[in-house]
Each structure stands twice: as structure tokens, then as C-alpha cells.
Design brief:
The complex is a heterodimer of chains A (49) and B (315). With 49 residues, chain A is an all-alpha fold. Helices cover 37% and strands 0% of the residues of chain A. The termini of chain A are far apart. Chain B has 315 residues and is an alpha/beta fold. Chain B has two domains: 1-109 and 152-177, no CATH class; 178-301, no CATH class. Chain B has helices at 4-17, 77-88, 110-116, 150-153, 181-187, 191-202, 210-214, 239-252, 262-266, 274-288; strands at 23-28, 37-41, 71-75, 97-101, 121-127, 130-135, 139-143, 165-166. The chains are: A mainly alpha (49), B alpha/beta (315).
Amino acid sequence: MGIEPGRLHFSWISSAESTKFAKVAQEVSDKVKALGPNDHFAKKELKVA
Amino acid sequence: MIAYTDKIQEIARRLLKDCKVETVIGFRKGSVPMMNEPCFITSADAADGLVWDGNCGINLANYLTNRKEKIAVFAKGCDSRNIANHIIENKIDREQLYIVGVPCQGMIEKRRIRQMAPGEITEATEDGDEIRVKGRDFEEVYNRDEALQKNCAVCVHRNPVIHDEMVADEVEEQTDVDRFADVREIEAMSPEERRVFFRKLLEPCIRCYACRNACPLCYCPTCFVDESQPQWVGKSQNPTDIWTFHFLRAYHCAGRCTDCGACERACPVGINMRLLTKKLNKDAFDQWGWEAGLNLEERPPLDTYRPNDPEEFIK
């Protein structure tokens, strides 16, 4: 689709693995923050005159 | 292919007369040239109206969803694969169907003929490999192979995979076609190039959902785009909404699409959204050797679990 590498992550986490979930969530948000905002897929509000 | 017409009428007449089926689903001539329309007939007398030529591209599997009666349906290669898919997904019983296989030589893309013709076409007839079109001050003959639908040009399943009866002998399957050349081109692009490519591809979309309506896979009682609580996707022409619709719809067809071309054929603005489903077809083929709807025994890869799965995480 044209999403840059590193923005989309997949992991397999069991409902019993709470610490793994926290760790992965932290890693994902750090990596995505480092990439900065992605404006291409944001809906821009229409300007009303 | 026009030669099939007599045989098709004869089969339909026989099936209805002998009360083998209650309904026959086939094609009749449309009101404009090169536009045959699906028709349901329930009496043997009406069989005279059935036709067959290169304009029967609409996928008739689309009309079988949740039907209760006994139906005879005329099926090209792709139709038969979608019928198999319908049976696997419990949308109709095999026992309800009398499938009449129609070996296919590819369907005609009417848009291309219209572009080639010097004026408005008022009459079109097929004769072997030739398509003869007539208009007000012209008469032209085109070669059938030049005007095939894009998916038909690279089709490798022209003969029906399941059938109770065949209209004619099987046709030769194409073997020297490169099915996924266009997908590979997109795969080779950088993410940025790809974003621009898809933007351009989907820009003309007017969100009419003709592609979804023509698709035999899209039988959900309420489609995610029509749902309002919650509203998964906005209704606007905003590129993000258009993308959400097309990409999500394509994913719903993963491992199920037969590349019948119904979506592209139905699109009023000529978007080739088959590129999206084709990528998923390619992935299913590369990873699991899967092509949808080839038989009734095998379960689709996305609803199968095997204990010997090579992926570590799933064990």
C-alpha cells in the first residue's frame, strides 16, 4: 500500500503473556514515534469557505 | 463460441421439461450491443431467449447465494470455481445444483472494442475468432484475441472444474502465460512509489460499489462499508476512505478470489482493482500452492490448521 517499513508490526501474544504484551507495545510505540507522523493516510478536513 | 447457443437452449429446455430443475440461470441478449444480461428462466418455452457469446462475462455464481430451489446454471471456468467456493462456504448445496459446464475462450472487453471503433456501435456479432461491429457509417472486424478481458488473457482454468454436463468438448488451456507480471511490477516499487501508484489507481473511484455487487464473494448480509454502528469506514470521496474500502474488500477475498474479473468489468470508471486481489492470489499461490475453488474436498488455507505448521508461534 505504500506504508514505510517499520510502521506496521505483527506479533503473536497469548492472553496469558501480559509482560510480553507490555514490552511489545512499548517497542512498537517507540519505533513508530521515531518515524514521526504519517500524514499520507490522515484524513484532511475539507476547508469550508 | 456462438455455436454454444443452440446447445445451451436445448439443455435448458430439456432440464425444465423433465422437471430436473426449477430454475435455469443463463444469459439473454441485453438491450445494447455487447451487453448480455443474466436471466432466470422457469419454463421450457423461455429457453429460446438464452444466448452465449463473448459477452457473458458476468459471474453467475453471484446469483446462487442462499437459494433454496434446484437450479441449473451455466458455468465458465471461473464461474465453476466460484460455485465450488460457494459450496465450500455453505452458501448452496451441491445437490441443489445442476452445473452445465461451458468451456470458455475468454470474454470480450467491450470497452476496448468501443475505443477501437470509429463511432457508436449499434450491432456486434461474433464469428469464430472475429468480432464484426457495425455502426452508422462503418463496419469493422476485430480479432477476438486483441479484445480479451485482461484476466481472460492470462487465465489458466478455462474449462469448468465441476460440472454435471458439458456444452462442448474441453478447450485447450493456456500454459505460456505469465499470470502475475503486473503484480511483480508493483512489488518491485519502493513504498513511496507504491503509495503514489495506488493513489492514482483508485483516484477515479466514485464509491458506487458496483465491484462489490458484481463479486460472487461479496455476499455478506451487511457489508462493512454499509454498517453504521460502528461505522468502519467514512462514506466520502476522501482518498483515505476510498483506500479503506478497496484494500479491505480485497483482503476479504484473500484465498477465495478466482480472478473472474467481475469487479473490473462492472466498474463504471475503469479501475483495475483486480491488481489488489491478484496480489493476494499470488501470495496464496506462492505460500500454499493454493488456487481458490479447484475442488470441493480441500479446505481453503485461511481456515486450515495443520499440526506440522512451520511457523513457531502457532504451536
